């Protein structure tokens, strides 16, 4: 079997083939479905392993003291051999997972083969395909709880034990310092207990997440807003408890705790931060400083953990196993939600790369899961589907794209002349200098004649082949019903035309593959899809004012789509695809453009009947975009509102009428006036397209981006059908 290990001396990380553990009495053999990376504890260990010997010694003075004691007892040579032997060995990683019972040891009667269990322990719940887990370190997973959520059981137990040590009561006010994985769980557990919570973290994204998950207010450690929130919630007395869930070498957390805690309040240390207690501050308030030891009573007791000797419930109400079961129950009942904490789900085989990305900062994450895909279905969860993002193959020496002379008009043909073409595209083209509307093609003669008369086309016809064979036509616009887009675009590409196709490019993966096959066959990659919002002037100005970001972003896009009129062809899902498949590419493209990347996975859920749809997209740097596509909203509410949050800044777009950027406590910029009409970018998009046709230069949007957006749009249906996150797998 495979297991993730690290050499503490060299810092090497590896996925090794190791023997399968035996199923001993008093425990069960568990095949992993998901295991959770503790982005605090494990990354600290990974970082320490990469230090020099001196750096390791400085980071672990407790171990140095043990070494010195050994030197005094056993001498330098024996101690050196012992220390080097221990350092130069592989050690395991991981301590929180969910999996399926594969074998039951003697003396176990509370689970059977095939049951789903959550497991704990840094010797028994490792990042490995199989683990032997003793009885008191596993708990059955309640029916209906997703395995990826149950994998949070151990870290949830740590947070739960910390909260128990604080002894909160209804109506209390608590301060949580450090809003990483443990801190976010502590916030939710306190809120579920009737406690009002103020959070502190230097990362504004984590502060925003904690507020969404139940915190009354959050801010940076030195923020006046935090002190103001504490004063307002407590009447100036200070918080009842402070939970230290931070790490690092700063003494700021314990100093802040003393300043904001009430007289005789409690300070609970859950993480591993510096604890140089300011004596006067703690003495004057007579603060009660407590430590929370891992998962709860039983931890580090071999008789409890290894021999299965439970503590009587009348004497010890909450043991580590009972804490584990309690947290799973809270998850199952919806009192705690861990899904928003999942920043990334990686394949187990990619473990080394994932740790490296976390260590280097390329992957910003609160929680990262390893998925063992071959066992996900056995774990009671639908197999996580994957949708391929096909590669764009361009033969060397592809189709030529000669520049047009400035005094020779770009000749355009339109295939289709329906409402969108005649209201949103042709008005921008009819009066544009350097453009000639050559031919309009429709399926009915009268509609072609009407378009010719209204917009000044030179010719009107129903013969598509004649247009595609006309060498004088430079570009073809495909503005027909959705079901014909891919085939018409494919034909136009094969005919050597530059193509503008309205969204969607394709309704199925096979249709998308067909378009790309035409690109490969012809060498013609001159394709644009009508994703116009990235060209909207207000959004471009807002993006410029927002400026570059350094951390991951959180984007929210609300689309108040409204109900369709009875008889609309958009309702013909059997032939024209779902409504989101037809329109959703707009919003995915806008999100990807703002985040400067293509999505790597998505999760989609919908209300009954799929009237309202939520799509959460994840990006390579840990950014997320949530698209709420709803049809049941008020007709008078704006159709599109967007918020982009990162690095303490917010970009706000109000339906392409007003945009603003906030930075700290003030508005950095707000659009100076209301435009006469909403400009969603069609004019600028067409100008960029015509320029590319005239000059032979690059298309306005790279083809790879158009393909990624189309694949993501199609993946939404797969996600709804499978009820699981969808991986967007890039073809090599």
TrEMBL record:
PANTHER family: D-GULOSIDE 3-DEHYDROGENASE, NAD-DEPENDENT ALCOHOL DEHYDROGENASE. Gene3D superfamilies: Dihydrodipicolinate Reductase, domain 2, Medium-chain alcohol dehydrogenases, catalytic domain, NAD(P)-binding Rossmann-like Domain. It comes from the Bacteria. Belongs to the zinc-containing alcohol dehydrogenase family. The keyword Protein biosynthesis does not apply. It comes from Streptantibioticus rubrisoli. Its cofactor is Zn(2+). Keywords: Metal-binding, Oxidoreductase, Zinc. Signal peptide: none annotated. The lineage of its organism: Bacteria, Bacillati, Actinomycetota, Actinomycetes, Kitasatosporales. Residues 411-531 form the Gfo/Idh/MocA-like oxidoreductase N-terminal domain. InterPro entries: ADH-like_C (IPR013149), Gfo/Idh/MocA-like_OxRdtase_N (IPR000683), GroES-like_sf (IPR011032), NAD(P)-bd_dom_sf (IPR036291). Residues 182-300 form the Alcohol dehydrogenase-like C-terminal domain. This is Bi-domain-containing oxidoreductase.
């Amino acid at each position: 079997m495979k297991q993730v290990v690290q050499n503490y001396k060299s810092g090497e990380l590896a996925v090794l083939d190791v023997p399968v553990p035996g199923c001993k009495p008093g425990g069960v053999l568990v095949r992993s479905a998901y295991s959770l990376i503790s982005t605090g504890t494990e990354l600290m260990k990974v970082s320490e392993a990469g230090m020099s010997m001196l750096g390791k010694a400085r980071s672990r003075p407790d171990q140095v003291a043990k070494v010195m004691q050994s030197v005094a007892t056993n001498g330098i040579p024996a101690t050196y051999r012992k220390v080097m032997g221990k350092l130069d060995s592989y050690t395991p990683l991981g301590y929180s997972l969910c999996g399926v019972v594969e074998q039951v040891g003697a003396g176990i009667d509370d689970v059977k083969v095939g049951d789903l269990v959550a497991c704990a322990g840094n010797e028994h719940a490792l990042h490995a395909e199989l683990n032997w887990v003793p009885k008191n370190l596993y708990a059955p997973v309640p029916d209906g709880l997703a395995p990826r959520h149950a994998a949070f059981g151990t870290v949830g137990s740590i947070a739960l034990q910390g909260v128990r040590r604080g002894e909160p009561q209804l109506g209390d006010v608590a301060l949580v310092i450090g809003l990483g994985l443990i801190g976010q769980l502590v916030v939710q557990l306190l809120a579920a207990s009737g406690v009002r919570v103020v959070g502190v973290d230097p990362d504004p994204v984590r502060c925003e997440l904690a507020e969404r998950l139940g915190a009354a207010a959050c801010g940076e450690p030195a923020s006046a807003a935090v002190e103001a929130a504490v004063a307002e919630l407590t009447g100036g007395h200070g918080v009842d408890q402070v939970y230290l869930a931070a790490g690092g070498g700063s003494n700021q957390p314990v100093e802040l705790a003393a300043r904001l805690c009430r007289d005789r309040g409690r300070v609970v240390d859950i993480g591993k931060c510096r604890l140089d207690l300011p004596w006067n501050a703690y003495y004057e308030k007579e603060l009660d400083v407590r430590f929370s030891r891992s998962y709860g009573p039983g931890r580090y007791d071999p008789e409890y953990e290894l021999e299965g000797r439970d503590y009587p419930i009348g004497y010890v109400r909450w043991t580590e196993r009972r804490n584990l079961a309690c947290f799973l129950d809270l998850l199952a009942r919806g009192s705690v939600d861990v899904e928003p904490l999942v920043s990334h789900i990686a394949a187990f085989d990619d473990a080394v790369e994932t740790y490296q990305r976390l260590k280097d900062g390329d992957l910003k994450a609160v929680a990262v899961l390893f998925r063992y895909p071959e066992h996900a279905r056995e774990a009671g969860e639908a197999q996580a589907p994957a949708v391929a993002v096909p590669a764009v193959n361009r033969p060397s020496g592809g189709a030529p794209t000669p520049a047009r002379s400035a005094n020779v008009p770009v000749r355009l043909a339109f295939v289709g002349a329906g409402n969108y073409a005649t209201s949103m595209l042709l008005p921008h083209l009819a009066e544009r200098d350097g453009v000639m509307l050559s031919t309009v093609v429709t399926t009915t003669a009268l509609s072609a004649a009407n378009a010719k008369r209204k917009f000044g086309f030179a010719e009107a016809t129903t013969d598509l082949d004649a247009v595609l064979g006309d060498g004088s036509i430079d570009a073809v616009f495909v503005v027909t019903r959705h079901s014909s887009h891919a085939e018409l675009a494919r034909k136009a590409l094969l005919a050597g035309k530059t193509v503008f196709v309205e969204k969607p490019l394709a309704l199925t993966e096979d249709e998308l593959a067909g378009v790309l096959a035409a690109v490969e066959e012809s060498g013609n990659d001159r394709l644009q899809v009508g994703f116009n919002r990235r060209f909207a002037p207000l959004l471009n100005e807002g993006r410029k004012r927002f400026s570059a970001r350094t951390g991951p972003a959180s984007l929210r896009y609300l689309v108040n789509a409204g109900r369709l009129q009875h008889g609309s062809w958009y309702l013909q899902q059997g032939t024209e695809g779902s409504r989101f498949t037809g329109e959703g590419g707009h919003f995915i493209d806008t999100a990807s453009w703002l985040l400067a990347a293509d999505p790597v996975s998505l999760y989609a859920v919908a209300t009954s009947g799929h009237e309202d749809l939520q799509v959460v997209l994840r990006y390579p740097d840990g950014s997320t975009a949530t698209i709420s596509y709803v049809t049941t909203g008020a007709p008078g509410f704006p159709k599109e509102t967007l918020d982009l949050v990162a690095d303490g800044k917010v970009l706000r777009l109000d339906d392409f009428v007003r945009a603003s950027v906030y930075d700290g406590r003030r508005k950095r910029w707000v659009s100076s006036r209301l435009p006469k009409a909403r400009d969603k970018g069609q004019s600028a998009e067409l100008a960029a397209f015509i320029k590319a046709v005239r000059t032979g230069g690059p298309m306005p949007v790279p083809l790879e981006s158009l393909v990624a957006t189309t694949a993501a749009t199609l993946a939404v249906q797969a996600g709804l059908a499978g009820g699981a996150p969808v991986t967007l797998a890039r073809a090599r």
